[in-house]
Task: structure prediction
Amino acid sequence: MLTNPRILVIVPCFNEEAAIAGVVEEINRQRTQLPLDVLVVNDCSTDRSPDVIRRLNCLWLDLPVNLGIGGAMHAGYKYACRNGYDIAVQMDGDGQHPADELPRLLRPILDEKADVVIGSRFLAKGGFRSTWLRRTGIRYFRWLNRSLIGQLIHDSTSGFRAFNRRTIEIVSAYYPDEYPEPESIVQFGLHNLRMVEVPVQMRERQGGTSSITSLKAVYYMFKVTLATVFIYLRLRNQSHYGNAAC
Result:
């Protein structure tokens, strides 16, 4: 069992002034039972998010340009790697991921039974499960990932995840740059990381609006499919994947 781990919860934030304070305060309440720090990565927000973040009890990074969710998380993972954290957790800045699910998400890593833990909406009934269009996309990426790496991940687009130190070093070296969740599952599979899903309850976003419209969703599926196949072909032909320095 992993004892006295240093845990960093990374929260990417782009124009989440309505929700980010509640997200950080909810995570901080978990500090009574978990040894964690909170890092908000401000992805060049154009609303009042930077002013809100500076008043919160958390660490933060201000990106000089908008990098998207993949770039923001990559910056967070590099911070975790270079500062010696044992576990990194990704949580959305819109409030969809309840912080009281953190103990359940972290348990397989603390027990050293997983390298990657994914919080899944589809392993138990209840909670918010997104729109019909997005559920269709999730089923598609579930099939694509299983076809490429042979492992069934029910909620391949979930951004509620926890990584151990080995995985932090891998994603610090490379992490997909846009809509990274389905693509990174192939990356993890080809690195032979142990992926585990745990059932979690999610909520609707607690403020702001999603950047993914119906039209963008179609573009998203096309682009992520190409990126996923590309990373599969690139990593499959490498004889040694290895870990990189932070």
About this structure: The longest helix spans residues 214-236. The chain has a mean pLDDT of 90. Residues 75 and 240 are 25 Å apart (CA to CA). The chain is about 40% helix and 15% strand.
